[in-house]
Amino acid sequence: MAKKKPVKGIWTKAEITLLKKMFPNNVTAKVAAKLGRPIDNVKKKAYRMGLKKTKKHLKSIGLA
């Protein structure tokens, strides 16, 4: 079976809503997989939107 190619380009309102909901408390790779987008695209979009990981999440993955 062929691998599904990640989506690039314009973000839909539904994708933005999901990004806002998931990004602060989940690993970026998990968010990217859910959205079907490359990890770098998710990081860049989150940065442009001013989204950040919560302190609780960072602590849970050993970064805070």
Quickly describe the structure:
The protein has about 60 residues and is mainly alpha-helical.
Walkthrough of the structure:
It is built from four helices and no strands. The protein starts with 12 loop residues before the first helix and ends with a helix. The protein has one domain (13-60). With 64 residues, the protein is mostly helical. Helix 2 crosses helix 3.
Low-confidence stretches: none
Distance between the termini: 40 Å
The radius of gyration computed from the alpha-carbon positions, rounded to a whole number of angstroms, is: 12 Å
Strand content: under 5%
Globally, the shape reads elongated
How many DSSP helices? Answer: 4
Helix/strand structural class: mainly alpha
The count of DSSP E runs of length 2 or more, i.e. the number of strands, is 0
Reported for the largest beta sheet, the result is: none
Helix and strand element order: HHHH
Share of helix, binned = 40-55%
The total number of structural domains is 1
Mean pLDDT value: 89
